[in-house]
């Protein structure tokens, strides 16, 4: 959850260390198990969104996001960070968001078109975020503002912000690639192939 702000992640982890130890040591839950728990709670929130009951849905969604914060904290605290865990967390986060977005449409809070556009923009950003390191975080969190703002406006903002971050992220990746090419020197074919290898995660 804090891949793009490690200092913030470390600070939060220190603050909730007793909770992390309780979940992992006392309850015996692994980071992956907590990730799955976060997903199922988010799926329950989506089911409630589909009925149009916003406040209970937001409460459940909040519980899911708290669990989502714990999985990474446990992984960092106990040296369990892995690429596979990161992939699982990312995939289930996106699945949670999409099912919640579509459930908001089912519940009549927003049109299916806007829910689908927001989902596509989030998925596009996800394809490059590990390389661009740019993620505005404007996804599920924005839904809490539905208490005060109309959901069509919120989903429009989610779509625009994530699509803009995707475009800017592509520019960031391209600039880094060009910088690597300039630093390598040599003929174009050699430079391009070597720069591409450097940019491969």
- Topology pattern, helix = H, strand = E: HHHHHHHH
**Overall pLDDT:** 87
Total number of helices: 8
Global outline = flat
* Beta strands, count: 0
Helix content: over 70%
Unreliable residue stretches:
none
Distance between the termini: 19 Å
Structural class: mainly alpha
Q: Measured on Cα atoms, how large is the radius of gyration?
A: 19 Å
As a percent range, the share of strand residues is under 5%
Report what the structure shows.
The mean pLDDT is 87. The protein has helices spanning 6-15, 17-26, 31-49, 54-77, 83-106, 112-132, 151-184, 188-199. α5 runs antiparallel to α6 and α6 packs parallel to α7 (151-184). The chain is mainly α. Helix content is 77%, strand content 0%. It is flat.
Secondary structure layout plus pairing:
Layout: H1 6-15, H2 17-26, H3 31-49, H4 54-77, H5 83-106, H6 112-132, H7 151-184, H8 188-199
Helix pairs in contact: 1-4, 2-4, 3-4, 3-5, 5-6, 6-7, 7-8
Short description:
The protein is an all-alpha fold. The protein is built from eight helices and no strands.
